[in-house]
Amino acid sequence: MKTISRRSFLSKGAMLAGGTYPAMMALGMLRPAPTYSFNLTGSGDGKHIIILGGGLAGMTCAYELSKLGYKCTILEARERAGGRCWSIRNGSINTETDKPTTTAKFDDGLYFNAGPSRIPHHHELTMHYCKELGVPIQVYNNVNEGAYYFAEGKGPLSNKKVRAREVHNDTRGYMAEMLAKSMDHGNLDAALTKEDAQKVIEYLMAEGGLDPDKLYKASARRGYAESPGAGDKPGKVSEAHKLADMIHSGLLDPDFYNVAEYTYELQMTMFQAVGGMDMIAKALQSKVATMMKLGAEVTNITNLPEGVRVIYKDALGEHALQGDLCICTLPLPVLSNVNNNFSGDVSRAIDYISYMQTGKIGMQFKRRFWEEDDHIYGGITHTNNDLTQIFYPSYDYLSKKGILIGYYNFNEKAVRTGDLSYADREKLALQKGRLIHPQYDAEFENSFSVSWHKTKHSLGGWAVYSSETRKNQYPVLLKPDKNVYFAGEHLTYLNAWMAGAFESARSVITAVHGRITEQRVSYPVNK
After folding, report:
1. pLDDT of 27
2. Which residues pair with 76 in a beta bridge?
């Protein structure tokens, strides 16, 4: 059998398994440890790693590599760390490519998450870093049956706010009724025995809330027209919406009807960092602050025969920095505008992989009317207009003021909204939002909007792969281009999630450390 070096094995392992962490486990280069602790052996011996981008991926690389004895320098173009992990507070500043710089004017203590806002319970590495960095977390209420659906249109239920629980339970009821009737007549699956079919029918009756005649009728699941109370107040169940009415009103359109709890990433329990998601970024920054240069915009990346040279500019002018290796975590739309001497395959991959067009607006209100009047505590209202989603805050319940996310939109809707001025975005959010919450006009104070595909140093929300780019371009960037490695959420199957940044950073750290330690074994220093 032909021998293979550890470096070659690690490189091939990265391609086959999506990362070098399993390969290092196979080589015995990792000490056994609890889940997601990261105990690499060996020393970086002061090798200089230049890290481009001070988001979660870049800071994680510096944090872990510095533990191993590497010298790290992080170059971050913004005047803040965290990248897209950003909570908007009073005084937050943003600049979009076609608009002037704007500053948030929220009350102190209020915030909204312009970037990631949710942590799935199964994103173990994100949870690990919250624990290791001492970032407290709290439950994020992603699923709220008391929030609304609102469909503009001409159907019987159009232009009316309908509670999510009504739509969900009526739909499940009618679907279960049709299936139960079909099962009862033996039309669904002839392979089932009569006893098996009866068990399925019983399940459908329970799932849909059917009566003994296998008919769907409204129950307390969907809520009350008159709530139960003390004395002679048994409550009155509200009437079910007709299935045809829901269909004709667009409430069951596939791009609108939403059952978040069924989606793996959005299944409860979900979490958020107490005080804003940027608390995670700030905790990381506290560990790597001495290694980071803020306001340092990279303009050129050059692979050298030995090492790499990076040119960046800041308020004082242009500077050159040379290191042994480079880890580039810049979003690909940003990287495509940086001069480099990458291979043709790498350059093509950088240009071909697209990013989500998306935006949010945070709206401060003097009263938390969604709680006081509508009894909505967290969760999401879904619309079929340009708002797409309204997010209600899952923190500071029952406090006086609050910020809700007035729209969170994507693709064409985000493009239309992003092309508006800041004032017109606010006008749109108020115009469409008051159709659901007429309290907007009396309670609104101010807003701050972010269009990520127009925001400098981001130029997109997150990587979006087609089957072609996942097959042809994604693998190219998993490998280093000579002395430059690539990392970020865009180099995982966890696009849009903080876990993607953490997982990618871990994989690249392992590859870099494997390369350095392999070189030391291959070329021992004479003493």
Report:
1. 53
2. 294
Mean pLDDT of the chain: 89
Instruction: Give CB contacts under 8 A, 24+ apart, made by 337-346.
Output: 338/298, 338/299, 338/300, 338/301, 339/299, 339/300, 339/301, 339/311, 340/300, 340/301, 340/302, 341/301, 341/302, 341/303, 342/301, 342/303, 342/481, 342/484, 343/481, 345/476, 346/476, 346/477, 346/481
Outline where 163-305 has alpha helix (H): 164-184, 194-208, 243-248, 278-288
Per-residue burial over 185-216, b if 16 or more Cβ lie within 10 Å, else e, is: eeebeeeeeeeebeeebeebbeebbbeeebeb
Residue whose structure tokens are 């027209």: 225
Which of 393, 386, 387, 389 lies closest to 370, judged by CA? 393
Instruction: Report whether 425 contacts 102 (CB < 8 A).
Output: no
Rg (CA), the chain: 27
Helix (H) or strand (E) holding 421, with range, is none
Are 14 and 20 a contacting pair, CB within 8 Å?
yes
The answer to whether 355 and 331 are in contact (CB under 8 A) is yes
Q: What is the 3-state secondary structure (H, E, C) of 39-105?
A: CECCCCCCCEEEEECCEHHHHHHHHHHHHCCCEEEEEECCCCCECCCCEECCCCEECECCCCCEECC
Place of tokens 């507070």: 89
Of 66, 79, 61, the closest CA to residue 327 belongs to 61
d(CA 49, CA 515): 13
> Length of the chain in residues, anyone?
527
- b/e 380-414 (16+ beta carbons within 10 angstroms → b): bbbbbbbbbbbbbbbbeeeeebbbbbbbbbeeebb
Using an 8 Å Cβ cutoff, are 167 and 247 in contact? no
pLDDT tens digits, one per residue of 31-64: 444 456 778 888 999 999 999 999 999 999 999 9
Cis peptide leading into residue 492 (ω within 30°)? no
Whole-angstrom distance, CA of residue 301 vs CA of residue 312: 9
**Residue predicted with more confidence, 525 or 385:** 385
pLDDT tens-digit readout, 295-318: 999 999 999 999 999 999 999 999
How many beta carbons lie within 10 A of that of residue 42, not counting itself?
A: 15
Summarised one tens digit per residue, pLDDT across range 464-507 is 999 999 999 999 999 999 999 999 999 999 999 999 999 999 99
Task: Find all residues with CB under 8 Å of 295, minimum gap 6, and list them.
Answer: 76, 77, 78, 79, 314, 315
Q: Which of 84, 37, 33 is nearest to 57 (CA)?
A: 84
| Higher pLDDT, residue 299 or 523 | 299
**Per-residue pLDDT band at 235 (split at 50, 70, 90):** confident
